[in-house]
Amino acid sequence: RQAMDDSLVAFAGQRPAFAPDLLLTRTASDGTIRLEWNDPGFTTASYDVLQAAPGEALSSVLAVTPTYVIEAGSSLNTLGQNRADYSETGTFQNSTAESVAPGLTPGIGSRFIARASATGSARFRPSQLPAGRYRVDLTTSNFESSDAHNVSVTISEQGPSGTVTRNFRMEISEETAGNHWRTVGTLNFIPGNNHGVEFSNSTQTSTGADDRLNIVAVRFTPLFANVPPNGSPGLLTHAVSVVSPRGTKSKTSEVFPSRKTPWGQTRALVIDGFDRWNTFTLNPNRQSHRMASILAESLPLAFDVECVANEWIENGTVQLTDFDHLFWVLGDESTADETFSATEQSLVTSYIAQGGNLFVSGSEVAWDLDRATGPLAADRTFLNTTLRADFPSDADDDANTYQVAAAPAGIFSGLANFSFDNGTGGLYDVRFPDVLTAANGSSSALTYVGGRGGNAALSHSGASGAGNLIYLGFPFESITSKPVRDEILLRTTTFFGVQIAPATSLWFTF
Question: Which of 40, 80, 223, 349 makes a 20 to 30 Å CA pair with 254?
């Protein structure tokens, strides 16, 4: 067993890690860009933050490394990093056994529950961390015991409804346990809330010395970064990759856009809901996930742009009502990954009712929400009354064409015919573009040329010029011509009531 453990650790340390999922890019008033990402749950030494302007390749601008270590140490005084953040309950003793995981103070032993005590807990509560999400790693001492590897770990954090705890059970090997860090989860840290990590040995039964709950240290690595401003009001894109302990890098995360202009006429939020792209079935070569950025590159310069993964909408981290316009990117998302969850449906319906404007595109949205069997009644209602579309036949799941024309009386009237990607356009094959039927006052904006025909996009004007909707039955980012993408979004924003200030165009000219 030990040989197998050692082999897995060595393999994990040398192989590239899984790419993280980028969750958010937001720009502060001073131009600082906030990025947040998830923990890919793999052996990780640091994170590499990348940045690019349109037309440029992504390049590293910031390394995010573990920023805070709490060592229990083998002394009740001040021995070890941030020793004041450690406390214990029970009868503990000092041990000369230690960990040699990277970043620790050399020669500091661990603390262990005394053999005469049945239970004990060790608490690590950081006092100097900035607010944010952190990956939590632990290391124990190297020890020899068949019983000492049963360690219960609890992470306490502030949730939407108060303090919540999440429990983990660690199965730790013996002699080499303290040679490396082991990830136990994430912590949403809020200063002053006693958030932290607690270890309990109440399930251990060994009575030998130095062989239970030999906790050495906990470390915290930010799952966020604040990238300094670069002085340009132009669009920037960002991504994150994982760096393994041996220096190998993962593929990059999703590529998210952001822009903060001096004039700040209107705020646009791009929502990336194309989770299916991250699967090996659809994207076996793990190509760049850049759909949100493709859309943002076509937004007029008057827009301040932020980007978020749909999960951060669903859990309430980002409020839709903070933005004037939503641009929801669903690509080829379908039933397996869900296009609009029940929570998202409620939030979007409320947003439009309050006067917000929505642009949404995706080739399987209508199929997911309104096919003959499978959807809930609420799904069908959302498609019919909020997205103002109908899907009367499952045969409408495939337009069987890649060609599109402007509806003569629609908002894109006069736009020349164009095509979207059939697998040769450099992005992905749009296999099943939805044919949309107008409903509840919507009208045709684009139509399919050839194939099954029918509506490729719908539009609807809200009351008093607010709460407007444009819904494409194929992915916007798959349109093969950038000038066409630019024109569609220019007309969309005009339809949404955005007037491009002359100063904006003048700055862009120079």
Answer: 349
